[in-house]
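Model: Ready when you are.
Researcher: Fold this.
Model:
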Amino acid sequence: MERAETTSRLLDVGYRMSLFPNPRGYNNEWESVLAASGAIESYKKKYNDIVQKHVEDYLFFDEENPSSIYNCILNARNNALVVRTSFTPESWLAINKAYQEILNFKQNKYSTSDLPNLTEWAIEQVNLFRGTINSLLRNDGYNFLLLGLFVERADNSARLLDVKYFVLLPKPEYIGSNIDNMQWSILLRSLSSFRAFRWAYDGEITATKIADFLILNDSCPRSLSFCIQNIVKHLIDLKCSPPKVNKIYDTLKDLNTTIQQEKIQTIIDYGLHEFVSKFINKISSVDKDIHKEFFN
C-alpha cells in the first residue's frame, strides 16, 4: 500500500510539472517519473515512445507492471487474505474496498484530466488503511508490517527526491531560479509537506533547505532519517529471532550512523543524485536481507 501511495505521488509530481513551461531540462517529466519509479526499462519494452497517457496507464493500471497501483493494491489484498484473522475487520475492509473500486476504475476509460482525481483517490485509500492498523496488537506481526512500511517509504522518498534531480535544469544559471524553486515546491506539495516545511524553516523555500527537510530532518515523517530510525526501532522490537535481527542490523547500522551524522552541505557537495542513488542501493540491500532471513 505504501508503494501504491508513492506511485500516485510520482504521477502527481509528473502531472503538476507538465503544466509548467519546461525549457528542456535533463529529461522530460514523464521520463523522470519512470526513471525514479524504476520502471523505465520495462516500460520501453512495451511502448516505443514516452507519452503521458501511456505512462499513466503503465503506472496506474498495467497488470504487467508489478509496481503499478493496481498490482500493489491487488497484492496487498492477497497478502491480507493470508493473515486476515490477524487483521482488524476495518483493516480488511479498507483494503478490499480499495481493490473493488480500482477494478471499477480499470474497466472504465478515463482522460488525462482525471489523473489528479485518481491519484488523490489512491492516496486517500492508503491513508484509510494506515489509520486502521493503529488498533493492531504490538507484536511481531505489527513490527513486520511497520518494518516493511518504513523500508518502502525510505526507498520511495529517495526516489521522489530523484525525480527532482532528473528535472533539474542542466545549466548552472537555472539553479535557484523561479522554475527550480517551483519544482521543489511541487515536490513538497506532492508529499503533503509544504506547510510543515514552512513551519520548520520559517517559510523560506530554497533547494538546500528542502533537501535538508526531506533527508535529515527527524521531525519530517517522510525524511530518510525518520524512516531509518523507525526501521531500526521495529527491527530491534522483533522477538522471533534475535540472531537474524542482529545480522540484519549489522547491514543497517552503518547507514543509520551515516544518515544521523551527515550534514546537508556535505551531501550537496557530494552530489544529491549520487547520495540518493547510494541510499537507494543500501536500503535495497536491507530489504533483501529481511526477505532472505525471514521469508525465504
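Researcher: Now this one.
Model:
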Amino acid sequence: MRKLIIAISLILIFRGISGQDPHFTQFYANPLYLAPSFAGAIQSDRIAAVYRNQWASLPGAYVTYSFSYDHFFENFNSGLGVLLMRDVAGTGDLAMTNAGLQYSYDIKINNYWHVRPGIHVNYTQMGIDYFKLTWNDQLSTGGTSGGTIEQPGEEVKADIDFSTSALVYSDRLWFGFGVDHLLTPNYGLWNNDADWPVKYTVFGGAQVIKRGHLFNPIDESLSLAFLFRHQDIFNQLDLGVYWYKAPLMLGLWYRGVPIISKDPRGDAVAFLVGYKMDDIRVGYSYDFTISNLVSSTGGSHEISVVYEFNTSRARKKRRMVPCPEF
C-alpha cells in the first residue's frame, strides 16, 4: 500500500498537479533563497550552506541542499550572489536542481531608510529515476512482481526561470516581498505541460530590543518576524521570535494559517538554536508537526553553516539589514 501511494502521487505530479517550492525554517541563514535583494546585503563576503530533512520518518522524505555565496561591490553600490539548490523527494529520486545568479542595488532614500531591489536568473532542472519506481501493475498480494507495461517519459527536463524582489529597511525595521517563477518553467516529464506556479512572498520584522557596546554593536537583541507565502492553492504563514545574547541565539516559530486552513491547529512549531563565533555561525532547527500528520512525519531537521569573511577593506561603514541571522 505504501508503494502504491508513492507511485500514484508521482504520476499525479507528472500529469500537472501543482507543487510547492522547498521551504527552509532558517530562511535568514539562507537569505539568497528568500529574496535576491539580500545578495551583498552585509558588510563582508558570505558563504552559506543549509541541509534540510523534512518528514524524516516517511520513506522517500524530502531532502534539500542549498549553497550560496554573495559579495557587495562598494564602488557600484551593488551586490552579486550565486545560489545553488537541490531538492530530492520520493523513492524515485524526484529531484529539482537550480543554479542561479543574483544582483541587487542599494538605494539610500534618506538617513533612516534604504531600498534594495533585486533580480535572480537561474537554470533549473527536474529529473527522476524511473527504475526506482514501483507501478500499480507490479503490485500483488505476495509483494511485487516483475516488469511493468508503463512507458517512462523524459528523465530530465530543464528550463530558465526569473525572480525579482524588493527590500525596505531601517536601523531596526525591515519589510520585503518577492515574486518567483515569473517565466513559469515547464517541468512536465510525462510528455505534457506542467508549468511551475508563480510564488509570492512577503516578509518583515522588527528589532524590539537592541543592546551593544563599542567592541560589539549588537551584544543582545530581541526580534519579531513573519513570512507569508502564496503559491497556486497553497498558503503558508510563519510567525516567530528570536532572542540573541552573544554568542547564543534561540528562536521559536509557529507555522500555519488557522483562519483559512482545513486544520485549525496549523502545520508546525519550530525550535531554533544557533551559535555565533567570530566568522562562523552554526544553526540547528527542528520542526515539530502539530497537524493531523503529527504521528507520521517524525518532524523536520535543518542545519545551517554560514561563514563571513573580508576580501577587501570597506571605505566606509554601511547600514546593515537588521533581520536575524538564522
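Researcher: Key takeaway?
Model: Residues 2-14 form the longest helix (13 residues).
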